[in-house]
Amino acid sequence: MSDTPPPTPPRGYSARTEAVQALGHVDAGTRAVVPPLHVATTFLRDPDNQYRSGYVYGRPDNATVREAEAVIARLENATAALAFGSGMSAAVATFLALRPGDHVVAPKVMYWALRNWLLTDAAEWGLRTDFVDMSDPDALRAALRPGETKLVWLETPANPLWTITDIAAAAALAHAAGARVAVDSTGATPVLTRPLDLGADLVMHSATKYLNGHSDVLAGALATRREDDFWARIQRVRRSHGLILGPFEAFLLIRGMRTLHLRVAAASAGAMELATRFSNHPAVHQVLYPGLPAHPGHAIAARQMRGGFGGMLSIRLRGGAQMAIRTAARVALWKRATSLGGVESLIEHRASIEGPDTPCPDDLLRLSTGIEDVEDLYADLDRAMGS
Ligand code: PLP
Questions:
Q1: Of 257, 286, 320, at which residue does a domain stop?
Q2: Nearest CA to ligand 1 atom 14
Q3: Are residues 248 and 145 in the same domain?
Q4: How far is ligand 1, taken at its centre, from the CA of residue 338, in Å?
Q5: Tens digit of each residue's pLDDT (9 = 90 or more) over 199-213
Q6: Does residue 210 share a domain with residue 81?
């Protein structure tokens, strides 16, 4: 088996170097520096009935997917990672690895589709979820039920208000109550925050966003501190539900992660510049960005995010919902589209997509800063706001 990635021995390089080189794997058969794309769904059995290659069928496992997982594990300082067909499937697999009747604490501000799933299908299946203000440790403390709470779900910065949660403090509270902690770190990326280093047990990404970074792959990832029983249950859910990432998507994801550090640094610098300028813009009454000293989570963000505050910010417009929708309609360079974390900048009126129970105000525009020239991005929005 020449080109199965071996378990990668630590080479002693930084996560950035390892991601750029996709862990330095060179195909043994051809010496190609780009790993081959494995598309086979079935594998030859040995004459003595064994499967010595370790591969049997495409639903449990795939060599290209394993390569992507090895890079993600390295980026998150994790012992193992699993790649999924979407961020939602990675998150849902985590909850389905719990048992009906288990109690979960989740944030009031979180990715809206996952909150909806917890309120509907997960509740029907038997999970009991309390939603709390995760920026307030007392609110988490009050919601925890020692022995009953099995999982605390965090998202920081949390979409779309970019609320900050102190991961280390939340993990200490959750662990004292006997609960695991999982962090949706999609917005922070492993470049800026490594939740496992701060005490979390699991980290989740919509790899559709920054990890891939080019708005052309739907993918999700989980990375774990320990390969324990819970991790084995998540693996079983992925296998039985067929949630594994496709090999072509894994191949593109590996390519995307090679430039992750450059893209995140550029997007963070652009977002910081835009947040600062919009704070003084006459059409804007609030900028939500953890990099701004006035943001309530700034001090915690400055501690747990290294090298920037991410590419995501939201602005609230003085003219209310009508002005927000009109501004989004008038941009020329920003793309009026959902999603985030790609090289191209996106703008979205979030309340329109999140529906009536959203904590998102209707005068809010969510901005995913890409890597274009920030002067062009500012000028386009400034013009769209009617300046
Ligand atoms: N988590 C966050 C913070 C997200 O923004 C998204 C998607 O927008 C998801 C999870 C879900 O990811 P996916 O769309 O890849 O299923």
A1: 257
A2: 87
A3: yes
A4: 10
A5: 999 999 999 999 999
A6: yes
Same domain for 70 and 100: yes
Q: What are the tens digits of pLDDT across the range 13-35?
A: 999 999 999 999 999 999 999 98
Q: Determine the residue type at 378.
A: Y
Instruction: Give the ranges where 45-166 is alpha helix by DSSP (H).
Output: 63-75, 87-96, 112-119, 121-125, 137-143
Separation of 119 CA from ligand 1 center, angstroms? 17
Verify cis geometry, omega within 30 degrees of 0, for the bond prior to 160. Answer: yes
By most ligand atoms within 8 Å of CB, the mutation choice from 209, 210, 243, 348 for ligand 1 is 209
- Residues at CB less than 6 angstroms from ligand 1: 86-88, 111, 155, 159, 184, 186-187, 206, 208, 218, 220, 339-340
From residue 131, alpha-carbon distances to 149, 159, 314, 345 in Å are: 13, 15, 22, 31
Specify the pTM. Answer: 0.97
Q: What is the predicted pLDDT for the residue at 220?
A: 99
73 and 156 together in one domain: yes
